[in-house]
Design goal:
With 188 residues, this protein is an alpha+beta fold. Helix content is 41%, strand content 24%. The protein has a domain at 2-58. The chain is built from eight helices and six strands; from the N terminus they run αααβααββαβαβαβ. Strand 4, helix 7 (144-155) and strand 5 form a beta-alpha-beta unit.
């Protein structure tokens, strides 16, 4: 991700009125920063102020992904065969967090045919510092049937004012495969 930022900076040096901000995000979490930048630009704030605001907003973005299994990790060479076999044997799924310009693999959750329930519960249950104004759900298309189940599961824990669905998906962003999803929201 750092190379993309550097290349964008170099390109912007040759064009007037183009400013580059390092979102330190990929996928769904970046949408919060884009929305804020558009709003602030419309209100007449300077590019420098907008970039600083985006940097500060990054600390409040909660952006996570999960997948049904670890086969994607084996294909990419980032999950060893032994770890993948153990996770699959114990029916565990990875939890991927995007933060501070990097992707971190950490906590795992129980995986079954409806693995998303455990993921949503882990991310949203008993969380008191969630900004309830917007939730972004990212998942690969076709997501129509699954989407109603995802929204119903989310509603068990947090009532968001607005839910936006995007196919800036875990499949593309983190290469997690067809049965992957992401939750993105702000914390207070």
């Amino acid at each position: 991700m750092r190379d993309s930022f550097y290349n964008a900076q170099k390109a912007a040096e040759t064009i007037k009125n183009v400013y580059v901000a390092d979102s330190k995000q990929i996928g769904g979490g970046m949408l919060f920063q884009v929305e804020q930048a558009i709003r602030l630009a419309g209100e007449g704030f300077s590019p420098e102020f907008i970039i600083k605001s985006i940097d500060e907003l990054d600390h409040h973005i909660n952006s996570t992904y999960t997948a049904k299994d670890t086969s994607w990790g084996r294909r990419l060479g980032i999950v060893s065969r032994n770890l993948s076999t153990a996770m699959d044997f114990f029916c565990l799924a990875p939890l991927v967090t995007v933060k501070n310009g990097g992707i971190k693999f950490g906590a795992v959750i129980r995986s079954d045919h409806e693995y998303y329930r455990n993921y949503i519960a882990k991310i949203l249950k008993n969380k008191r510092n969630i900004d309830r104004s917007l939730l972004i759900i990212s998942c690969p298309k076709p997501y129509t049937k699954r989407l109603d189940r995802y929204k119903a599961e989310v509603a068990k824990y947090v009532r968001f004012d607005r839910i936006v669905v995007t196919d800036i998906s875990a499949k593309v962003v983190c290469r997690l495969g067809e049965e992957s999803m992401g939750l993105h929201f702000l914390t207070l």
